[in-house]
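Late entry, evening session. Most of the bench is empty. Finally got around to the prediction I had been postponing all week. Sequence below, unchanged from the version circulated by S.P.
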Amino acid sequence: QVRLVESGGGLVQPGESLRLSCAASGSIFSIKSMGWYRQAPGKQRELVADITSGGSPNYADSVKGRFTISRDNAKNTMYLQMNSLEPEDTAVYYCNARKVVLLDPIDYWGQGTQVTVSS
């Protein structure tokens, strides 16, 4: 089992920044990738960014150039630096960790942290 705990959400104005953190614990060996997803009211959960165990990042088009994903393997923590936030970024942000067991993906999720961008 993998436990994921997010922190860092809050209320900011458009153009401001936030940094989300996700601390992983438990059976964290063999995690292949970690990522951030978000879900706005009335919408499906969507990928924001993910990063492989080797450190290769991938971003949704809507956040490219504004968000940066990173991970500190020594601290078992992943980060999402969000700059130039827009009202459209308002959502609950979820941390995800993925393992692959016998070719099948197994996903673990955090409890989510609210990000609200509003003037």
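Two things to note before I forget:
The two ends are 40 Å apart (CA to CA).
Residues 31 and 117 are 31 Å apart (CA to CA).
Will write this up properly tomorrow.
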